[in-house]
Amino acid sequence: MSTRCVVLTGLMGAGKTEVGRELADMLGYEFIDTDTLVASRAGKSINQIFDQEGETTFRKMEREIIEELKDTKGAVISVGGGAPTDAANRAILNRLGHVVYLKASPKELFLRMKNDQSRPLLRTKDPEGRLRELLSEREFVYEQANITIDTEDLTVPEVVDKLIDEMAKRTVETQME
Length: 177
Known about the structure:
Blueprint: E1 5-9, H1 16-27, E2 30-33, H2 34-42, H3 46-53, H4 55-68, E3 75-78, H5 87-96, E4 97-103, H6 106-113, H7 127-142, E5 147-150, H8 156-176
Parallel strand pairs: 1-3, 1-4, 2-3, 4-5
Helix pairs in contact: 1-8, 2-4, 3-4, 6-7
């Protein structure tokens, strides 16, 4: 495997962080979570950023972090669900290496996160409906990924294995061109 990066995209709850950590361990790569970096830099949680400064400030901070990662090699990078909707972010992420869409239905995502209070975009009376809206708004961007893995009925290790197989296929295809 080359020293290019693997960028994980998808809606919240798709498994980007868990899959990212396990994939990074298997590949011997660094794991980078842009949401964690934003929260660390701000000195507050994502919820606090949204509550005190708004989503616009969060997205600006997220964009700055992604810009700083543009020359990264040998890392698995998990980005926030909205990050790839920004064209500048998307351009950087695409240059980093394999961009992977971890896909799951809004119903499955809701079941995975129904007790998670750390998701500011889900603090609504109908979180499953909000997930449907977000997927409707973002799916066309997610589907531009090099690789799509449907995580619906897979365990984290199964997703990682499937992803490694897909990346290996793409590497062989690239070498044959």
